[in-house]
Design a protein that fits this description.
The complex is a heterodimer of chains A (384) and B (133). Chain A has 384 residues and is an alpha/beta fold. Chain A has a single domain, classed as 3-Layer(aba) Sandwich (Peroxisomal Thiolase, Chain A, domain 1), CATH 3.40.47. In chain A, 38% of the residues lie in helices and 18% in strands. Chain A contains 16 helices and eleven strands. Chain A has helices spanning 23-38, 53-56, 62-69, 86-100, 119-125, 132-136, 142-157, 161-164, 166-175, 189-194, 222-227, 256-269, 286-295, 304-309, 326-329, 334-349, and strands at 5-12, 45-49, 77-80, 105-113, 197-199, 202-203, 212-220, 233-241, 278-280, 363-370, 375-383. In chain A, the strands form two sheets. In chain A, strands 3-2-4-7-1-8-11-10-9 form a nine-stranded mixed β-sheet, with helices on both faces. Chain A has a two-stranded antiparallel sheet with strand order 5-6. In chain A, helix 4 packs across helix 16 (334-349). Chain B has a domain at 6-12 and 52-131: OB fold (Dihydrolipoamide Acetyltransferase, E2P), CATH 2.40.50. Bound molecules: zinc ion. Zinc ion is lined by residues 24, 26-27, 29, 38, 40-41, 43 of chain B.
Chain lengths: 384, 133
Amino acid sequence: MSNKVYVAGVGLTKVDEHWWTSLEYLMTEASLKALDDAGVNKVDSIYVGSMLSPVLQEQGHLGALLAEELGLSSVPAIGVEAASASGAAAVYAGAREIESGRANAVLVVGVDKMSDGLAEEVTAAMMIGERQEYVGFIGATFYSLNALIYRLYMDKYNIDQEKIALFPVLCHEHAVNAPHAQYPFKIKLETVLNSPYVAEPLRRFETTAIADGAAALVLVNEETGKKLDSPKTELVIEAATDYLTPFQREDPLWFPAVQLSTSKALERAKLGRQDIKILETFDATSIMAILSLESSGFSERGKAWRLLEKGELSLSGSLPCNTFGGLKARGHPIGATSVYQIAELHLQITRRAGKNQVDNAVAGLAQSLGGIASTAFTTILREV
Amino acid sequence: MFKIKVPRYWRHKDFRYRLNAWKCNHCGETHFFKPLICRKCRSREFIQVSLPETGKLLAYTVVRSPPEGFELQSPYIIGFIELDDGTRILGQVTDCQPEELKQGMRVEATFRRIREDEEDKIIAYCYKFRPVI
Ligand SMILES: [Zn+2]
């Protein structure tokens, strides 16, 4: 039997283009907020997830760097990387350490600061999560790979783009009252459909933008949790991997790693899909959100658009999704994003979601993807 | 940026220049670069094959937001192609405008310049696909 893991504190910085703030400052700010929220001064170890900092800031060694910034040098601190799921990888490492009994309290942080790079540099940097010698070499981009999948999907199921382009509209609706969201305003479907192509059929408003942000969690074991006054949730995290290039998989429209990590997490939490009351999908593009909904079993294949159309994913729907705006509207500071997702579930379940509070948010599930589901983490948070 | 360094570039030229690849003796999985063990069945026996140079275009898109190093080429086409032996491969599609392309159309491999490293003046080549006329 492994020890239970609790989230005892969260810290979020506003997602934005923070021109006057450094990577170090952002991750320290989020960390302090999380430590203060939990009411702890010290932790047994630190894990920092980041994807782009070795390229855009030419900065590695984020573990020791953050420990120093926090005045916690001497504490074991390690940087972890799993492409755009790097933040979830940090959570995974921290959670496993608590489960094993080796730590009572762990700080996990996700951070990335994209505004330090030019658009072309960021586009190139995003490809470090793909096979560079093959896919990077020919000039393919993350969005062009998404576009190919998007085209195959629309053909296979004979679905129009306007059905899928509703996803960003939903996200923006949910970001309106999110204090930490990058784009807290509504958009219309026409705005999405009239935005320029990034790689046809994928349009600008179906993707995310340059974003800076850091998010942090304090994870504790049961005994430590009992001594803390802060509101807590119980956390279960599972992971799976797949080929880096979706086009070498048997079916590019199916994410086996999402399916597998979802099943494993539900099984370990002893929950069924019907017990999940809020969902965080990884909408790096509209089509990725759709495929994740289907691969995780929350929708039948080819039918995720119906959940959108019927309003099931809205705050008042049967399965509120991306309740603070998701990657599209809260923002997608790559390595930080999955920690935002988990922190947002925590805010919902501990009834601190403000105007976005979902009534029966007793259990939530976050899908965090590295690349096009080459890594998939599934995190379940539940009421304690 | 993806720096073009000669040894790194050179070691993969068999695939990039001639579409030479490796097929698993046990399950038939195609590996573009020489593998040690099959990613699908974990067999360790492979035979080198020349992939067919023709196939059909399954899907295509246009890169309008290029990565560093490809700015001058943008916009350019990326295609997802099924070669005649069933191998699926990504590649640039050239010698045509996007409007001329149709899903399912026949394409053939051709040998082209992929990029020039401006600093080191190294020109990198690779297969690209073009419509069969
Ligand atoms: Zn094999």
